[in-house]
């Protein structure tokens, strides 16, 4: 694995400061039932890092103390954490919006057959990875049989009421490009997904998020190996749009790793660039019990161009039309 931080450390990316904290994005662990080429977390079946119960309790305490509106759960496969369901149920009981970043195939893993029903019963918003509506492209990026299992999972979610007329159950899909290119315009791509998935599989969804691949971890290392890293970084910087700085996710979000350490975003977490809260060079989640994170500086590096390039890219999809 090639280290990419030394290639990203020197940057002309503009300085940013955080606004009010609205979203706590919590990485519950790096264990995953898949191992995808584009995964910036480098997650997989052999990873064993998992958030413990005490840190899960701290997440719940911070949600209440800071009045955070959204809990965004990620991994790995976040559902593989043994405290996942307890965290979801407790956060929903607080009135917190909960997002599960689901890879879909987890819903058919042994021991998780009732997971889809649990998510629906709790009113959890699902943001599901489906990098293409083509079986060959999905299986090529994520492994043999992943597309078929993903389609089965989407049909099951639709049957439970997700993305159905009059339902409050939200189902969003996520697209990643196959290589070192910018994602196409999100609105047009969403129309293509909607047409193809409805026509061939009878599947409905609410929104499609088109995300740029970040030049870090597994994807960044692949770029270095192919001698394409500098060209991709130049592509991202060259496509920078100043207006996207207003709505990048780090302005209202903090990322939490499986040990409770804070980062300005999930990408910074993977680069080991800790957030600075209350003057701490490396701040822990516990700092948020007594201290507000508003107006703190955000750490930036070369990968940040990926969030402002073209239409922009965040965990909620494109930032501009």
Principal-axes shape call: globular
Helical stretch count? 11
Please trace the helix and strand order, writing H or E for each element. Answer: HEEHEHEHEHHEHEHHEEHEH
Averaging pLDDT over every residue, what do you get?
Answer: 90
Radius of gyration: 19 Å
Instruction: List the uncertain runs.
Output: none
Structure, described:
The protein has about 325 residues and is of the alpha/beta class. It has one domain (about 5-310): TIM Barrel (Alpha-Beta Barrel), CATH 3.20.20.70. Helix content is about 30%, strand content about 10%. It is built from eleven helices and ten strands. It has helices at about 5-10, 55-65, 85-95, 115-120, 135-140, 145-160, 185-200, 215-225, 230-240, 265-270, 305-310; strands at about 15, 25, 70-75, 95-100, 125-130, 170-175, 205-210, 255, 260-265, 295-300. The strands form two sheets. An eight-stranded mixed β-sheet has the order 7-6-5-4-3-2-8-9. Helix 2 (about 55-65) links the parallel strand 2 (about 25) and strand 3. The chain is globular and about 50 Å long. The chain starts with a helix and ends in a 13-residue tail after the last helix.
Layout of secondary structure:
Elements: H1 5-8, E1 16-17, E2 23-27, H2 53-66, E3 70-74, H3 84-93, E4 97-102, H4 115-122, E5 125-129, H5 135-142, H6 146-159, E6 171-175, H7 186-201, E7 207-210, H8 217-225, H9 229-238, E8 253-256, E9 262-263, H10 266-270, E10 297-298, H11 305-308
Parallel strand pairs: 2-3, 2-8, 3-4, 4-5, 5-6, 6-7
Antiparallel strand pairs: 1-10, 8-9
